């Protein structure tokens, strides 16, 4: 990665950092609040709830005796429970515990029953998943789902002289004599038609069926760009239309997709039309990406990071709570499955290890997502929150998953791991995490 490209301007650098801090602070705050509130419900007292590390900038003590604080280094957070030596709850403060009554020891993490400790530890990742679920569901409620039958909300402007007789409010019944399927099946509809720059549409307009002419319904139009992509770097914007590729005129988004997919990473010259602006030429170099598939595998493709859309904006309706909930759960499930599958495929060498991003890459994407608007930014937070919850469940000492493994050992043997074993296991876990961080940071600096 070109560091100069990461920081195009001084102001852009601080915007990227600010977006990263905001996203990370929200996710960490929810994670730590899960530990805190479930610990409190199960009778474990929290002494400190901190967002950030280092010198304390502001703090207050609540009626439960917990000090809530904001610290100077905003790249993490912690909850320190009663009787802990430090923020990790890995070792008790024996001198403190020794002077406590049985009732007082019950309020510590190390003196609480196993069920209370396990629930408190698991609550952090669980709250991350809950945050993702709520954000995905709420974002779908805001965006809406395409109504049936498919109705035109607004016509998107296109270049050229192709006849355009469609209008807002039209209900599309047929295209070239083929009945239009429900919205959830419409993505494959183009395969049923003979491709042509101009089509015949049968529409219901003001209660009367009419036959009108219009362009191919899936033009090479930019609906959105992916952060950290060639399209984003080339300043392609929503509403732009690709008129030609290497001098060859196109009218169908699939023509653009095929040209990019067959480029083998060679630069492509795109002629881009923008409403109320001059047509311009841009050169984009497709980037090789490993994309997760629904069956758990991966597909390697060349991409420029551009998402297409219909020639019109379809009317949308608010989904039911059940639809929103199902969507949120499905998104979390897909992220978890593709993350685990990606990790496995990287370990066995089937996909590139460059798919593992580090702090620089995540910060860059957070800044680019924020620059695209609040919807994109909160979508990124939902995705990252699921990733953080999953990572914390890995059975590595110093992570929540490692603590849950210790609790499982205690449940089976009747005794927790010895202090000596804990010391070495925690040191080993910290080494693994530092090595993983160094490796991902190297990816940020080296990988394209």
Low-confidence stretches: 1-10
Number of helices: 12
Portion of residues within helices: 40-55%
Structural class: alpha+beta
Distance between the termini: 5 Å
Report strand order across the widest sheet: 6-5-7-8
Written as H for each helix and E for each strand, in order along the chain, the element string is HHEEHHHEEEEEEEHEEHEEEEEEEHHHHH
Biggest sheet overview: 4 strands, antiparallel
The number of E-state strands comes to 18
Q: Summarize model confidence as the mean pLDDT.
A: 89
| Rg, nearest Å | 27 Å
Q: Tell the overall outline.
A: elongated
What amount of the residues lies in strands? 15-25%
Structure, described:
The protein is α+β, with helices and mostly antiparallel strands. The protein contains twelve helices and 18 strands. The strands form seven sheets. The chain has a four-stranded antiparallel β-sheet with strand order 6-5-7-8, with no helix packed on it. A four-stranded antiparallel β-sheet has the order 11-10-12-13, with helices on one face. A hairpin with a 2-residue loop joins strand 7 (198-205) and strand 8. The longest helix has 32 residues, at 10-41.
What key attributes describe this structure?
448 residues, alpha+beta, Pdz3 Domain, four-stranded antiparallel beta sheet, 42% helix
Question: Can you summarize this structure?
Answer:
The chain contains twelve helices and 18 strands. With 448 residues, it is an alpha+beta fold. The strands form seven sheets. A four-stranded antiparallel beta sheet has the order 6-5-7-8, with no helix packed on it. It has a four-stranded antiparallel beta sheet with strand order 11-10-12-13, with helices on one face.
